[in-house]
Amino acid sequence: MLVPALLPLPGSVRAAAVVPDDSVRIAILKSAPDVTLSGEGLLVTGDDGQAISLQLPVMVKPLKNGLGVNGKFFRRLTFVSSAAVYVNSKPYRGVTELSFAEKGILVVNQLPLEEYLVGLINCEISSAWPIESVKAQAVIARTYAMNRKAARQSAPYHLESSVMDQVYDGCLIEDSRALRAVNETKGEILTYSGALIQAFYHSNCGGKTEAAENVWGMSVPYLKGVDCIYCLTALPAAAWECKLSLDDIESRLRSSGYKLSGLSGIKAGVNNKSGRMQDVTVVAAKGGVTMNGNQFRKVIGFGVIKSTRFTVKIQQNEVLFSGVGNGHGVGLCQWGAKQRALDGFEYREILSYYYPGTRLQKLSEIR
Q: 27, 147, 259, 352: which has the fewest C-beta neighbours closer than 10 Å?
């Protein structure tokens, strides 16, 4: 998970908004130029829900307001298998739906929530980590998914399969430990005042988690930031450096809509209470600008500026960024949770530490 936005609610979604079934809809491809599908014993249905015969593997291409397969036009195609549907060679459980959207093909995988979680675990962390940290991951991923589902009931899908929500690659890297963590926390979610929380998490906070208001401008009672010395055991792996030319930085800024030219420097602003860069000033001959640290990180690239806990040093025509941590810093710190589990804490204690004031409940209890 990277930097999704807070939903337009005070940090939570009321439980009553959760739709009754436990399936989730995941966008695994958006605006795809073509999609190849295959699998054993596939049932394929078209617009009217009637089965259609296709020779597999089959390539689907976008047409104007529809899909093209072997010269035939469809508005929607659905693929189901008792084993897995292979989408561009990756296996997915459940139902796979294709439709035209955003100048390409939208591919949505619908499957039971608990099966989705088993596939997700090894995309977000390693199931080889201490089992209590894996169980904590299962709970927050389940909570996050159901929160998003409640807020996006009328949308074509509930979650994306990328860092914009939760990373999910189908059933390709499922294993027994991931299944164990999901089964041993089955149906468990986190609530605050009877509502599903927005269970944000990140890789490594670098020593202190961040308050939600410093990233998204909205105060959330259970996302105020806590001290976290635990993830520092991951150093120096959590430390990072990157060097970019001024021309490269200017190009990235211009690509994001900033009208400037003649970039001559980057000035770091003050750090906030969690030690993160509050603002950054871009110095240019024309169009210099000051932006907050999170916006700067987004513009330059989340994978380049890995956190807002960084320093800046100008070296001739280059800028050296040196930092620690990885991610937005809000909510649970995954490497911190790993160390807490190694220290003997169980998943309930880990969760209550990173989300103070929350309660662990079953989905069935709040419906």
A: 259
